[in-house]
Specification:
Shape: globular
Structural class: alpha/beta
Largest sheet: 7 strands, mixed
Strand content: 5-15%
Number of helices: 21
Helix content: 40-55%
Strand order of the largest sheet: 1-10-9-8-11-3-2
Distance between the termini: 43 Å
Number of strands: 11
Amino acid sequence: MPSIDMKALCQRYPLIQDMCELREVTWYNPEMTSMEEGLKHVGLEQDHVTDASQRLKRFAPFFQQAFPETQASKGLVESELVEIESMKSRLEQHYHVTFPGRLLLKKDSHLPISGSIKARGGIYEVLVLAEKLAIEHGLLSQDDDYQLLLSDDFKQFFSRFTIVVGSTGNLGMSIGLIGAKLGFAVTVHMSSDARSWKKNKLRNLGVNVVEHQQDYSVAVDNAREQSMGTENCYFIDDENSQNLFLGYSVAGERIKAQLDDMQIKVDKDHPLFVYLPCGVGGAPGGVTFGLKLAFGDNVHCIFAEPTHSPCMLLGVMTGLHDQISVQDIGLDNKTAADGLAVGRPSGFVGKAMERLISGYYTVSDERLFQLLKLLAESEGICLEPSALAGMLGPIELVTNDQYLTRQNLSSTQLNNATHIVWATGGGLVPENEMKQFLAQGHI
């Protein structure tokens, strides 16, 4: 990595000083442009998302048999979109502010199989690999019933191949669960902040879990190194994978269908604001891509990061992307939001999506626990801390109206707005751990 003149960088971007002091900050992207212009820099198109959606439909019969919890959705790995009116009232009371429009929660926290947003990208990437290998070896065609993949013959075939990934927890969970079900040999390199229950769950499925005392970047580097020295080994690169990105992007068309079912309009007069927790950037970046394809300039996507790990904000704001880490500015990358504990952002996502992301803000661990408790008390919905990062978004938007002014959004448009907080994980958290989370929420 090139050396960085931190003094010059801080002079050019004064917000870095606030970040160094762990203050909660908000930064709206001055380089944001129209969807039409922004998509020119992504390198992917609607056809790629359509292909991903069709692949997931081909695998639907497999999922219905392999994971009975997907039968209600006919084999699609999808989550509910629910209105959280009581939480909206609690937020307004707690922060002494009113924000117009409706507040919804996208419960990727309760996605089937692995209980986190990583079920979208992680599972999809393994499916791409499984389909490719089976077709290349003459064992499968796209016209077949994919329930065939549950047979012992296929499991024996896939056991010849190894999948390796580095993770803070949820991506490793998703890849381990689907990989083990298909029969792959799976190794997950877990960073120091990964929860013990996630490691134990994977080990109970026969997944090889390698623990590291360092952070996410070290886990990824070790996974990459292992893959280069192992025959028939496939490294899943959370930082740069287009397949992961496309798995997440299918969420855009799914949200559109759900909003249609709820008779909620999204157009110029009815804007949509979506608040997405961000770690390395693949999941929120892919979802944003899908949302932009579905709603164009009428959707506004804002990323939320922990004060200790604002890697995507730092990378995009400075234009250095993956050439800078939060450790470079003196932060420790240690946060209770384990799924967001990433020091260096995805260069692929940052460069591809920087013109389509409306803005970024950071949130303290203390506030995450407060929001966690508020949601549990008001709606009876329990999430892990990282999944609450997006909940502060509507408050940030109305208390710092810089973005609204820049976009010329009128009070009438805001009254008609819909806000979606993307809940990214927590559905499988053990009861005793959830009680500990709730106990830390001081309101």
